[in-house]
Fold:
Amino acid sequence: MTAKEDLTMATAKRRRFTGEEKAAILRRHLVEKVPVSNLCDEYGLNPTVFYRWQQTLFEHAAAAFERRSDAREQRLKREVEALTARLARKDEVIGEIMAEHVALKKGVGAI
Structure:
């Protein structure tokens, strides 16, 4: 490597990949069987970075499936809580109306 190339690499800005880009690169390796060395050359990646992405993918793969069910359970739980609160409020209102009804009946009977 020449001094000029070394200086160029030192001043080059680090490229940031989005989550979608990382997933696409990993997919090409895992599904399309593109060798890691080819992908790293194509995208200017250090193989260590590629394998770190792959490790992260596998560590969080279960979460991709759990989130849907957890989100659904959380939504259902919130709905149940809201309906329970609504029902409790209706019970309070019915109780107040019944108390007024009884008081009116007693008042009419006294006349």
Notes: The chain has a mean pLDDT of 85. DSSP finds five helices and no strands in the chain. The longest helix spans residues 61-110.
